[in-house]
Design goal:
Length: 236
């Protein structure tokens, strides 16, 4: 069976804050910023909104924020993962002093992927691939994570970033790849609600990783966390 750490909580925001606090604390002891990759989707929105309402929760200078994937849209779009984070969280911290690294969506997807890889190389100098302290990911109902969709060529990428065309969405996407995700110190999948129960149940029964369910291929050294609520876990 695939090994996961199952963390079932009634309050996913409080749980996510625990993981973020741990990353900040560990990085602070090493006198550096916590390097955190954020995700899109509905579940993290509550986390971002909570952070936006509590601007003193973390010392912002201790944070280096990145995004695991992005849509090729401007940050003003409601579909922008970075834009959502900016509107719900970052814009409410008027003195945010950390690093913020949105995908450069003002260029073609292929150029944006290359540019983001270069930005990673500069920021994570000497690390090949880069090592994030914390990566938040979602899980789609068919098992996609970041913008790695079932049986995508991007699942075989050796580069740090990719710009795969997602036929089911009829659009290209921008995404970090498995070589990066699998180097993270902590990976937390956030997946809540009844609609996520079937895919989470499938993950429980898989014998090994499969490109048919990309989330199963995220296998960092420390088993990834499945952070879900009782409904997602199939508990009443």
């Amino acid at each position: 069976m695939l090994e996961f750490h199952w963390d079932v909580r009634d309050d996913l925001v409080a749980a996510a804050l625990d993981y973020l606090a741990e990353a900040v604390h560990t990085a602070s002891r090493e006198d550096r910023r916590a390097r955190v990759s954020l995700s899109g989707g509905s579940t993290p929105r509550a986390l971002f909104a909570y952070l936006g309402a509590h601007p003193d929760m973390f010392p912002s200078a201790r944070l280096s924020l990145w995004w695991g994937d992005e849509r090729p849209v401007p940050p003003t779009s409601d579909e922008s993962n970075y834009g959502t984070t900016e509107r719900l969280w970052l814009s409410h911290w008027p003195a945010f002093a950390g690093d913020v690294h949105p995908w450069p969506t003002d260029r073609s997807p292929e150029e944006a992927a290359i540019a983001y890889a270069g930005e990673l190389k500069t920021a994570f100098a000497g690390e090949d691939p880069p090592v994030f302290d914390l990566v938040f990911l979602g899980i789609g109902p068919e098992g996609h994570t970041a913008s790695l969709f079932p049986d995508s060529d991007a699942l075989r990428a050796t580069s740090w970033t990719a710009a795969p065309y997602v036929a089911s969405k009829e659009t290209p996407r921008l995404t970090l790849t498995l070589p990066v995700l699998n180097r993270a110190r902590t990976v937390v999948f956030m997946a809540a609600g009844e609609q996520k129960r079937p895919i989470l149940a499938t993950l429980r029964t898989l014998e090994g990783p499969t490109p048919a369910i990309p989330a199963s291929m995220v296998r960092p050294e420390r088993p990834p966390v499945i952070l879900t609520d009782p409904a997602g876990a199939g508990r009443r």
